[in-house]
Structure formats: structure tokens, C-alpha cells
Design brief:
The chain is an alpha+beta fold and about 425 residues long. The protein folds into three domains: about 10-125, Immunoglobulin-like; about 135-260, Immunoglobulin-like, CATH 2.60.40; about 315-430. Helix content is about 35%, strand content about 30%. It has helices spanning about 1-10, 260-265, 270-275, 285-340, 345-365, 370-380, 385-405, 410-430, and strands at about 15-25, 35-40, 50, 60, 65-75, 80-90, 95-100, 105, 115-120, 120-125, 135-140, 145-150, 155, 160-170, 180, 185-200, 210-220, 225, 230-235, 240-245, 250-255. Strands 1, 2, 4, 5 and 6 form a five-stranded antiparallel β-sheet that branches. Strands 11, 15, 19 and 20 form a four-stranded mixed β-sheet that branches. β19 and β20 form a beta hairpin. The longest helix is centred in the C-terminal third of the chain and has 58 residues, at about 285-340. The protein is globular. About 25% of the residues are buried.
Length: about 425
């Protein structure tokens, strides 16, 4: 009994706070989805903690991250509240890649000094893709599926049909290029638009990205034509092989358009020369009378062109004036939004969006055109002072943390005040050099 007691006393007590990092997989292929989980263990609730993620150098961060959840577990004889913050990454470089430590800053209280709880770094061995990539492979790595919908199975020459394609999978779907359209005689094709979204998250499962594409298919001749096929090539890390998905062939019955039919009817037989040559064979005095009578009508296109040019110039000047007003009023608008957001339930989202809108106003970008990832890229390439840049990034991270890890979040009024200081520093330095 005494020996057992001495052994138990000799063991160091389990800590009140600690962190760990879990990564899956540790040997991904370049471009493959990697899930990085930062787990913070605390024996008691923590107020005003600040989460500082790794810089994830060498990785692409998926949008909509990080995801956070809380659980309660027993470990080493103690009960912990565990906050898990998951970030989805895609390695962009091969070889040994180190994910720098993420950490939590615990502010000083009457019961403890200020502490930094840091997870250890994680080393990954990123494998290159095989060299035998087939044609039309554009870098998609993961598991994918295709779904295609054609607007109709009948059409007319020259009239576009809409082909909607949905690509979903576990790879870096946001960065995917449009899939390859297999060229088929008798068709012209055009990519019209694309839109990215994510599927509903399932705890413990990889994130599934979804990208919707719209293609215009324009038939150039009549008959029963097979619509252009879509081929999507990707690398499947589970089977370690390249795979290809192709849409199912669809036959479209294409009729002659009414406009083309009229031209063909007029172009056959003896009457076509009469139709084409009739204006040229009119008598001279008839041409003279027509010119002198209708010359104002002939000038209308030129007058209309001048008027349209003037309108376009006024519109351009109006846009420039509005952009200048947005630039000069950006700081005041942002401060007003922050002051009004102190008591708002979504203050963290308001702070993040306010900083994004400030950048949009200052740079003349349209509203909603700068997302979280793009803003981080802009900041990394800016010429801001190091202290201003660090403060701005810390403010953004605190705003993101408040949305996804509220139990670790900075106090709302404190975050709003921090954002005000950051905006003041930005206003003094704008534009970055």
C-alpha cells in the first residue's frame, strides 16, 4: 500500500490546461484534403481566451473554416471541456511540410497569470502525384462525382441550350477549373458561370465541396445531334490512380430555325435575284427623292450614337464619384457600424464584415467581392507596417473565433474597441505602399 501511495504521489498531476494537434492524413498527396484539429483542454470554463491559428504556410485553407465544437471527456483522472477547432487544408508543396503550432492565449485573472497554451508542431510528408497524368487533368485530388442536366432535348439551329453541371467531392473544389468539354462536330460551346458551395458538414467526415457550372451549347446544324460530353479527370488517393468521369451521351433533335428557314426559302429559285437586286435597280429620281426626304432618318443612328456616348460618359463619371465618396467615407462608415454592433447578437460577424467592407470601399471593389481568404491574401501582399498587419490579423482571427468558438471568444465590446484601433491605424497608412 505504501509503495502504491508513493508511486501515485510521485506522478505529476494532470494539467489544468493543455492543447494538442491531430492531423489526418500525415502522408497526403499534394492537393489532397487534410483535416487539422486543434484541441484545447480546460478543467473550467475560460473567458476571453484568444485562439491564434497556425499560418498554415504551404497549404490552401478551405473557405468556411474553421469549424468548432465542444465536448466533455475524462482524461488522466480529470474531467475536461475540450474545444476542437478543425481547419480543412490542401497541401500545395511536396516533401516535408511543417504545420506551425496553433495556440490559445489565456488572459491574466486573479487566480492565474497570463498563459500561452500551445499545441506541438505537426510534420507531414506530402507525396507528389504520379507523372502519368492523363490529358485534361487539372489538379483535382480526392473522390468526386458528376451530375449533369440538359435544359431540353429539342432545339433549333443557333439557339443555345443550357447544360448545368455539378461537381462534388472532397478535393479543393473551390479552385477547380471548368471540366473538359469533348469537342463534337456541329456544336459551339461556352462556359457561362460557376458557383461554389459546401455540403452540410458531418462531424468526423471530410468536407465535401460543390461547384455548379453552366455551359451554353449552341447547335450549328439540324438533325439528331449528340450533345457535347463532359470529361472530368482526377486523382483518387484511396486507390492511388487517375480516374475519369464522363457524362452520359444525350441526343438532341435540332430543327432549322425560322430565321435560317426564311433565308433558305428566299435563296432558292429565280426570285432571289429579284429580292436582292430590287433596291439597286430603282430609278435615279426615286433614289434622289428618297434621300432628300428621309435624310433626317438616316442621321438618327449617328445622333443616337452621340447620345449613347454621352450617357455612358455620365454613367462612368457617376460611378467614379460614387467610388470616391465610398473611399472618403469608408472610415466613418466602418466606425459607425462598429459602434452600433457592440450590443448586437452577431457582433463577431459584424466586425469581420466591417473590415472586409472597409477594404472594398477603399479599393473601389464592389460590395461582397472580397471574401475571408482573399482578404488574407491581400493583407499578406500589402505594404502595411508589421504592427498594423499583426493587429489586423489578430482582430480578424478573434472575430472568426467568436463565430466558431464562442466559449473561447474575446469579449464583444473589447473586440469592437480593438477593431476601432485597427481601423484608425489603417486609415493613417492607407494606401499601403
Amino acid at each position: 500500500m505504501l509503495a502504491g501511495l508513493q508511486s501515485a504521489v510521485g506522478q505529476p498531476p494532470a494539467p489544468d490546461y493543455f492543447a494538442e494537434a491531430v492531423v489526418d492524413p500525415l502522408d497526403p498527396f499534394v492537393g489532397q484534403q487534410v483535416r487539422y484539429q486543434f484541441r484545447f483542454y480546460a478543467v473550467a470554463p475560460v473567458v476571453d481566451a484568444i485562439y491564434e491559428p497556425s499560418d498554415f504556410e504551404g497549404f490552401w485553407r478551405a473557405p468556411g473554416n474553421p469549424r468548432a465544437e465542444q465536448t466533455v471527456i475524462s482524461r488522466d483522472g480529470r474531467q475536461y471541456r475540450v474545444t476542437t477547432v478543425e481547419t480543412v487544408l490542401f497541401p500545395t508543396r511536396t516533401g516535408e511540410q511543417v504545420i506551425a503550432p496553433a495556440r490559445v492565449l489565456l488572459p491574466e485573472t486573479v487566480f492565474r497569470p497570463e498563459q500561452v497554451i500551445e499545441a506541438p508542431p505537426v510534420i507531414l510528408q506530402v507525396r507528389p502525384l504520379p507523372d502519368d497524368a492523363p490529358d485534361h487533368f487539372t489538379g483535382a485530388v480526392g473522390q468526386f462525382s458528376l451530375e449533369a442536366r440538359l435544359s431540353q432535348a429539342t432545339g433549333a439551329v443557333g439557339e443555345p441550350l443550357l447544360l448545368q453541371l455539378t461537381v462534388s467531392g472532397t478535393g479543393n473544389v473551390e479552385a477547380l477549373l471548368p471540366p473538359h468539354l469533348v469537342a463534337i462536330d456541329g456544336w459551339r460551346t461556352q462556359v457561362r458561370s460557376s458557383r461554389y458551395r459546401t455540403a452540410e458538414a458531418i462531424p468526423g467526415e471530410p468536407v465535401v465541396g460543390i461547384k455548379d457550372y453552366e455551359f451554353l451549347l449552341i447547335p450549328e446544324r439540324s438533325g439528331a445531334l449528340t450533345a457535347p460530353l463532359i470529361e472530368f479527370v482526377y486523382y483518387d488517393p484511396q486507390v492511388q490512380a487517375y480516374r475519369s468521369l464522363t457524362t452520359t451521351p444525350v441526343v438532341v433533335v435540332v430543327a432549322e430555325s425560322e430565321g435560317n428557314a426564311a433565308v433558305l426559302d428566299g435563296g432558292s429559285g429565280a426570285g432571289v435575284d429579284d429580292i436582292r437586286l430590287k433596291p439597286m435597280l430603282a430609278q435615279t429620281h426615286e433614289l434622289t427623292r428618297m434621300f432628300t426626304t428621309f435624310w433626317p432618318v438616316w442621321l438618327m443612328p449617328l445622333l443616337g450614337l452621340g447620345a449613347a456616348t454621352a450617357v455612358a460618359l455620365r454613367q462612368q463619371q457617376g460611378r467614379q464619384r460614387r467610388a470616391q465618396r465610398r473611399q472618403t467615407q469608408a472610415y466613418n462608415r466602418a466606425c459607425a457600424r462598429l459602434k452600433a454592433a457592440v450590443d448586437a447578437p452577431d457582433v463577431y460577424a459584424v466586425v469581420e464584415r466591417t473590415l472586409q467592407q472597409y477594404f472594398e470601399d477603399k479599393s473601389g471593389r464592389s460590395e461582397g467581392s472580397i471574401n475571408r481568404n482573399e482578404m488574407i491574401r491581400i493583407l499578406d501582399a500589402s505594404g502595411l507596417k508589421s504592427e498594423t498587419l499583426a493587429g489586423l490579423k489578430a482582430c480578424l482571427e478573434a472575430a472568426i473565433e467568436g463565430q466558431y468558438a464562442p466559449h473561447m471568444a474575446k469579449e464583444p465590446s473589447s473586440l469592437a474597441a480593438q477593431a476601432m484601433r485597427v481601423l484608425h491605424a489603417l486609415e493613417q497608412e492607407w494606401p499601403p505602399v
